[in-house]
Amino acid sequence: MRMLGFPTPCEHLLAWLRARRRQFQYLEMKKLEQMKAMILDYDELTSLPEEIGNLNRELQMLFLNHNVLTSVPKELGNIKQLIFLELSTNKLTSVPEEIGNLELLRILKLDNNELTSVPRGIGNLGQLRRLHLSNNKLTSVPKDIRNLKHLKKLYLGNNKLLNNTVPKEIVNLTRLQFLCLKSNRLKSVPKEIGNLEQLERFYLSNNKLTSVPKEIGNLIYRKLEQFDFDCMISDESSSESW
Length: 242
Known about the structure:
The chain is low in regular secondary structure. It has one domain (36-228): Ribonuclease Inhibitor (Leucine-rich repeat, LRR (right-handed beta-alpha superhelix), Alpha-Beta Horseshoe), CATH 3.80.10. It has helices spanning 9-20, 29-34; strands at residues 37-39, 61-63, 84-86, 107-109, 130-132, 153-155, 178-180, 201-203, 226-228. A nine-stranded parallel β-sheet has the order 1-2-3-4-5-6-7-8-9, with no helix packed on it. The longest helix is centred in the first third of the chain and has 12 residues, at 9-20. The termini are far apart. The relative contact order is 0.08.
């Protein structure tokens, strides 16, 4: 039995929302519980209440882009019906591994933040179709990215990826159509990328490449429509690359 005078988590969240935006000023509890999409972008948010995790019944889309969030509560991982999560253009330095609990998530946008590593638990998002991680400070890609069997678009441009930090396990992303690795610090890429038969667009420019594996040439005879790359001038050539 609830004690009188103490607001429930949803009531606390409702009060927070009413204070944040005019369109929520007259929002009723019933409507909050039935809400399928919530837009809180361009709102100068510096934090989120942990009670946001109580929106786990109907909410499918959550937009939190263009704020100044440095972190998000682990309770975000309780919103099990989410299929679209937008957290781009904030100041996030990390994301809780509980994000891996969002097993229905199809689009995750974390670009334009301050992330130094890919969130732990990302390999649990088996239904993910698009993963946006461009314009961060990532130095490597975890091997468990191989678990994202439905992934079609992977954005990793404008990071600090070093040599040998793109794992060969990327070959497991058999449905991948779009791969962006441009503007990093890569000196080489795994030859296994040449086995991504569905790849249509591949961006590699502005790295420190002196060559690319000859296996990449296989893509040209498949579905590749656009391949953007440049190589640093080298005095040596290799029959194993082109």
